[in-house]
Amino acid sequence: MRYVLVIFAALGIVASTLALREHYRTEGDSPCSINERWDCGIVNHSPYAMLAGIPVAVLGIAGYLLIGALAWRRANRLLLAAALSGLAFSLYLAHIEAHVLGVWCIYCVISLVDISLITALALGTTVASLFRKSSQRVS
Is the dihedral of CA 33, 38, 43, 46 positive or negative? Predict the structure, then answer.
């Protein structure tokens, strides 16, 4: 399972890197400017794209690196905590896109799906490891 989680973390790094590229784009149209409801440029240039002076995409890259490292080390409980934190933040950003900006970023949606899958897998992995440990004690 750790390889699957590491692959999903790598996908998150790619999505966050593409969002960071949009954040720093100064010329031309955003390549994901599909229509008035889907435009990564608007989202990544909004005031919500920064947190304490750091682009949110950089926080995403760091978070996915941490998740990948924790998955690799099989640190299941820490992995679950990191994944839940990432999911909560991603859901907050989705709320901003839906109800404040009224515009969606395809990279952000990919990241939301990715962190949702990572969280589900981390939860399953953590529960399974707890069951294994408790059944070993009983035996």
Answer: positive
